[in-house]
Amino acid sequence: MSLYISIDPGMKKCGLLLADTKSGKVIEAGVASLNKFPDLVSRWSEDFEIIKIILGDGTNCKYIENKLKQNKFFNINYVDERGSTLRARFRYWEIWPPNYFIRCLPKEILFPPANLDAIVALILLEDLLECRFVWPDKVSIKTWP
């Protein structure tokens, strides 16, 4: 397994994603508070051999980077995250297509019911590696307060 952690940094929370680049599958994903995300990254690094951490270069990225370095995570790559939130709306509907009745509506007017931070983290990873990942049905978007 070649595991990457992808992080969409924010002011109050982060989108986090753990993905296997060999299988092309998402392992775990969710949204964590700024206080909780270092614990989650540490847990993942204890349970898995993490190759790299991908970090969006936008809001609050320096704070996130400092927190990661305080916890001895140094293999960090920055990714340009401009436009990633809007793209996450479209990617959400690719992963979880809308039901039959609203499928014919333009995707631009549909707002996903879930928090998109984990999907943004997915887009950041896909942008860096220039490939698409599969989101298995058993993987739900978690919230770590």
Q: Can you describe what's shown?
A:
This protein has 145 residues and is of the alpha/beta class. The protein has one domain (3-144): 2-Layer Sandwich (Nucleotidyltransferase, domain 5), CATH 3.30.420.140. The chain contains 4 helices and 6 strands; from the N terminus they run βββαβαβααβ. A hairpin with a 4-residue loop joins strand 1 and strand 2 (13-20). Helix 3 (84-95) crosses helix 4 (117-129). The protein starts with a strand and ends with a strand.
Features of the shown structure:
six-stranded mixed β-sheet; single chain; 4 helices; 145 residues
Oligomerization: single chain
Helix and strand succession?
EEEHEHEHHE
Give me the Rg, rounded.
15 Å
Mean pLDDT: 90
CATH architecture: 2-Layer Sandwich
Overall body shape: globular
Annotate the secondary structure layout.
Layout: E1 3-8, E2 13-20, E3 25-33, H1 37-47, E4 50-56, H2 61-70, E5 76-79, H3 84-95, H4 117-129, E6 141-144
Parallel strand pairs: 1-4, 3-6, 4-5
Antiparallel strand pairs: 1-2, 2-3
Short structural summary:
By secondary structure, the chain is an alpha/beta fold. The protein has helices at 37-47, 61-70, 84-95, 117-129, and strands spanning 3-8, 13-20, 25-33, 50-56, 76-79, 141-144.
